[in-house]
Design a protein that fits this description.
Number of domains: 2
Radius of gyration: 15 Å
CATH topology of the largest domain: Alpha-Beta Plaits
Bound molecules: zinc ion
Strand content: 15-25%
CATH superfamily of the largest domain: Hypothetical protein rpa1041
CATH architecture of the largest domain: 2-Layer Sandwich
Order of helices and strands: EEEHEEHE
Largest sheet: 4 strands, antiparallel
Helix content: 10-25%
Number of helices: 2
Shape: elongated
């Protein structure tokens, strides 16, 4: 049975009852949140290949992420199109932590920027 954390919305399998990340008590059903309206951009990847690598990396950690191409006109230091990584707001802290580790471990390059 797939269990869901009501705090970070992560999914877990089988015998786990407490979320290892935030201590949330897992439920058998996905919490009835309209997750799509509770998303936040966390990272601007340098290119689409990296964006897709990040998304599959986050999916491996049970974080649903999407990306969209965007021009960050509000960031004057960025002169190229960037690929924004979007996650559900409750997953933000975990996703940022994972991305920080991924950069440190060389899984993704350091050419992206945290938002
Ligand atoms: Zn959790």
């Amino acid at each position: 049975m797939t269990m869901h954390c009501p705090i970070c919305n992560c999914e877990y399998q089988n015998n786990i009852t407490i979320c290892p990340d935030d201590g949330g008590l897992l439920t058998a059903h996905r919490p009835p949140t309209n997750v799509t309206s509770l998303t936040v951009d966390i990272y601007a990847a340098a290119n689409e290949i990296e964006a897709e690598r990040i998304i599959s990396f986050l999916k491996d950690e049970s974080i649903e992420a999407t990306h969209q191409q965007s021009e960050l006109a509000q960031l004057p230091s960025v002169n190229n199109n960037r690929f924004l990584i979007t996650v559900s707001t409750p997953s933000k802290e975990k996703a940022l932590r994972l991305l920080t580790n991924a950069r440190h471990d060389g899984i993704i390059t350091t050419s992206g920027i945290f938002l």
